[in-house]
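Model it.
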Amino acid sequence: MRVVHDEDRDGLPDAFEEELLQRFVPSFMISVGECDGLPAEFLSGSQEPRVVARNGTIYGQVFKSERSAWPGAWVEVHYYHLWGRDCGSLAHALDVEHVSTLVQAEYMRAPPSKWKALYWYAAAHEDTVCDASHGASAETLDAGDGGPTIWISRGKHASFLSEERCRWGCGGDRCDEMIRVPREKVINLGEPGAPLNGAVWIDATAWPMAVKMQSDFSNLVLARLQNAAPGQTVALSGMRQPWQAMILTGGSTAGAVATSNQQTGKAVSVAGTSTGSALATSAEKVGKSLGRTSRGVWNFLRGRK
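Modeled.
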């Protein structure tokens, strides 16, 4: 009798997860001037994330996606490029970035060759004022039976589904003189609380790794992707905010925002992700707006993404 191993206890055989990871792994592009070299491999068995090599290792995660209202079986596959440091203007150690795909088959026990990618998601400065995360259908990317090409911005490591998209965000992302990452290996991380391959560092508080290992495809995200026009890449952080183009990742970011406000007598008021932005003209609103914007910029520069 064949023994089925499921060491991360997510209801999917580990061998099946490995085959899906290999089937859909993207090609990653980085700048020749990348300050941290290549995505890093981390020490197996260590409670804290410790870089052992910068060799292009990609980490993966595979878990069921419950879609009771949709026909067939659904699985979410994540690919993480992890870095020893972020090289923004306020550089910091450790950087967690990823892309993901939602794949579908007729039934859960279908062989890996029968699974098809439906949508792809690219994380770019998630949960910051400069969030430029986005998604597209697999058909748009020609990535239904394999992985797309992913463009990684120099130094900040945001993920983009096209080179042109790399100019979005707050103006600090650059995808120039790009080369393909030599793929060392793809290592299955398992799940938070049930790591595989010695990746016990996924639960470390030194970085937001465990938070990134949640689903990227909420019902709202799927609705936006389904309603996209053919060939369209969809912003998934709300519409691009008007202040993003003027926020730079240089050392004078906060000063630039303040100077802009003094010159125009107006400020951008962040009204929440559901409402976008509004112009505030009263002194009280200006003060509150600058406070929120400054905190968002500060979080972005500190790498809280």
